[in-house]
Amino acid sequence: MVPEKKGYLRPSLYALIWAFIIFLLCNMHLESSGAEPWYYFEGIDKVVHGGMFFVLAILSSWGFYEQNRFGWLSRNPAVCSLLLCILYGGLIEILQGTIFTYRSADWLDWAFDIGGALLGLWVFSFLKKRYLARKPV
């Protein structure tokens, strides 16, 4: 027996919440105390960008896969998730360069967003086969 899929919003709720958290973190004004924290290294922001979009890709793919309102989204969750991550990462960088001018837009951040999303989709493909595989009726 195939478990019944949910509507559109419910399985995507985690991805929406995470996207909002990404928006807040990428656009908040950061105060500098002068001393670098112990965990700081050159390029840590790139790792953070990749990690945030790694999680977003997994959550959005899961949401697209589980929803049943739009069949194309359910059949192509990786494509939809990658497009979402590419557009969202680019939008954040554009906003950082134009509206949130206390942050600097860096297109290399966008590249790491895309890289993190691709890695997340790779992991999702394994999770989907292992835990979400549809069984024939």
From TrEMBL:
Name of the protein: VanZ family protein
InterPro entries tied to this protein: VanZ-like
UniProt key word Membrane: yes
Organism: Anseongella ginsenosidimutans
Transmembrane segments: 12-30, 46-65, 77-95, 107-127
NCBIfam families per record: vanZ_1
Entry keyword Isomerase: no
Residue ranges occupied by any VanZ-like domain in the UniProt entry: 13-127
Keyword terms, alphabetized: Membrane, Transmembrane, Transmembrane helix
